[in-house]
């Protein structure tokens, strides 16, 4: 038996409905704020992600599905949405449009990861980007919109962490300072943290080792090293969030896996998720468009995992799809009746009814059983070209009528 590749999954019909609910909320919430949907290709030039996401990131280092296009160029299945949206912004000269350009997407992404609950190799993200605007209001608006989307979906136990990274230069200087601080306290650190001082000094903040924790309590924080401009921007974002009542925690140790972030950084998690607790997050990327070859243009965005939203949201009660009418025949041998049934089903759909034709040629008795299973409201049993019996499946009553009267009768919808 051939199975779906590891880390992928089929979206079966009953799941499609929950996804539709999410799409509906995203369309409503983002649409009302003036965001327009965009779709970019499933694969891009590998260079876009190498430059856009950052050579040193986990995504580029080990999570990309890259392949040769047959002509010596390297293509990559998109692992994230921001770089492609920025590429499209540059490629289509969107800087000529009224700024900012506000876009959203709902697309599948691909990462070569270790599959587990909430972590797949093909997964879906809903995301939003605002390009061409550097004001703190933009940052706060985006955060509020994601909070609204998660709330509309009923995502449980959410927590919002917020930080500012400042500029890459600030970050570089801070990193050196932190490394020096860790070196000075080397003997008090756990072996693991000591071994990674150069590689990833920020990791030390996540350690559960008591000695390390004591050292980290006194460690310098990036938030205290921000330039006056960046600190002012961040304070403004926070006061806007405070004014809207969105609850957040300052997390000076928040890091996310993409290199392009500047200033505001945020992440929503849900305690309903277990290990893979990140629901969605994002940040400002004021250098990215320029890095991809565009004019210097500020931008900010977020992405949230569709599967994780659905895992952290309650299962809605499943209502079966409505079937107004099932059309079948009394005599399986009657060609006339089959023709008339086919026409009635088609006309019924054109009249706006959810109408199905009994396709299998099963007996009348089993057709009625099938009607029960699919919860059809009415069954039309066509006797010949112009005679039918209409059965109300709720009351069990039935009525003889001309074939032409079936649809008006169902549309009237009252009990026979
Ligand atoms: P994680 O820390 O869980 O690996 P991430 O930092 O790699 O997440 P982002 O690149 O910021 O995640 O993507 C945004 C969101 O997309 C995540 O918060 C998560 O909900 C979702 N996501 C990321 N990778 C996967 C995956 N492999 N499978 C399912 N959802 C994912
Ligand atoms: Mg990841």
Your description of this structure?
Strand 15 (387-392) and strand 16 (398-402) form a beta hairpin. The chain is of the alpha+beta class and 416 residues long. The protein has helices at residues 13-32, 46-52, 58-63, 82-91, 136-152, 168-184, 191-195, 210-217, 228-244, 288-291, 306-312, 335-350, 364-373, 406-412; strands at 36-37, 43-45, 66-68, 74-77, 101-110, 122-131, 158-164, 249-250, 262-270, 278-284, 299-305, 323-329, 355-357, 376-384, 387-392, 398-402. It has 14 helices and 16 strands. Strands 1-5-6-11-10-9-7-8 form an eight-stranded mixed β-sheet, sandwiched between helices. Bound molecules: adenosine-5'-triphosphate and magnesium ion. Adenosine-5'-triphosphate is lined by residues 80, 111, 113, 118-120, 123, 125, 256-257, 276, 278-281, 303-305, 307-308.
Topology at a glance:
Layout: H1 13-32, E1 36-37, E2 43-45, H2 46-52, H3 58-63, E3 66-68, E4 74-77, H4 82-91, E5 101-110, E6 122-131, H5 136-152, E7 158-164, H6 168-184, H7 191-195, H8 210-217, H9 228-244, E8 249-250, E9 262-270, E10 278-284, H10 288-291, E11 299-305, H11 306-312, E12 323-329, H12 335-350, E13 355-357, H13 364-373, E14 376-384, E15 387-392, E16 398-402, H14 406-412
Parallel strand pairs: 1-5, 7-8, 12-13, 12-14
Antiparallel strand pairs: 2-4, 3-4, 5-6, 6-11, 7-9, 9-10, 10-11, 14-15, 15-16
Helix pairs in contact: 1-5, 5-9
Adenosine-5'-triphosphate binds at residues 80, 111, 113, 118-120, 123, 125, 256-257, 276, 278-281, 303-305, 307-308.
Provide a compact summary of the structure.
This protein has 14 helices and 16 strands. With 416 residues, it is of the alpha+beta class.
């Amino acid at each position: 038996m051939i199975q779906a590749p590891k880390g992928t999954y089929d979206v079966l019909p009953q799941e499609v409905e929950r996804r539709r609910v999410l799409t509906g909320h995203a369309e409503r919430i983002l649409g009302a704020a003036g965001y327009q949907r965009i779709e970019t290709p499933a694969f891009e030039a590998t260079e876009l992600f190498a430059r856009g996401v950052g050579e040193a990131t986990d995504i580029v280092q080990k999570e990309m599905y890259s392949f040769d296009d047959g002509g010596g160029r390297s293509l990559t299945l998109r692992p994230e949405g921001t770089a492609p949206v920025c590429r499209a912004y540059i490629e289509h000269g969107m800087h000529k449009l009224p700024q900012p350009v506000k876009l959203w997407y709902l697309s599948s992404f691909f990462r070569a990861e270790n599959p587990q609950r909430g972590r797949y190799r093909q997964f879906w993200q809903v995301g939003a980007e605002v390009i061409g605007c550097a004001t703190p209001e933009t940052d706060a608006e985006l955060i509020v919109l994601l909070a609204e989307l998660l709330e509309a979906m009923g995502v449980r136990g959410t927590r919002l962490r917020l930080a500012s990274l400042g500029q890459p230069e600030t970050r570089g200087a801070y990193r050196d300072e932190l490394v020096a601080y860790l070196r000075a306290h080397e003997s008090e650190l756990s072996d693991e943290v000591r071994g990674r001082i150069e590689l990833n000094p920020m990791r030390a903040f996540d350690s559960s080792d008591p000695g390390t924790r004591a050292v980290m309590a006194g460690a310098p924080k990036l938030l205290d090293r921000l330039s006056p401009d960046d600190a002012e921007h961040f304070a403004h974002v926070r006061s806007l969030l405070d004014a809207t009542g969105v609850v957040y925690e300052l997390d000076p140790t928040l890091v996310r896996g993409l290199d392009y972030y500047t200033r505001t950084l945020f992440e929503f998690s849900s305690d309903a998720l277990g290990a893979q607790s990140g629901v969605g997050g994002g940040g400002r990327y004021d250098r990215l468009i320029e890095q991809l070859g565009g004019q210097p243009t500020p931008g900010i965005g977020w992405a949230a995992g569709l599967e994780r939203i659905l895992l952290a949201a309650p299962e809605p009660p499943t209502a079966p799809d409505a079937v107004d009418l099932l059309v079948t025949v009394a005599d399986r041998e009657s060609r006339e009746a089959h023709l008339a049934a086919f026409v009635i089903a088609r006309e019924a759909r054109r009249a706006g009814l959810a109408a199905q034709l009994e396709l299998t040629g099963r007996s009348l008795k089993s057709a009625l059983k099938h009607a029960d299973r699919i919860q059809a409201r009415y069954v039309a049993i066509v006797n010949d070209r112009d005679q039918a019996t209409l059965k109300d499946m709720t009351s069990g009553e039935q009525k003889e009528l001309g074939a032409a009267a079936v649809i008006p009768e169902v549309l009237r919808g009252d009990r026979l």
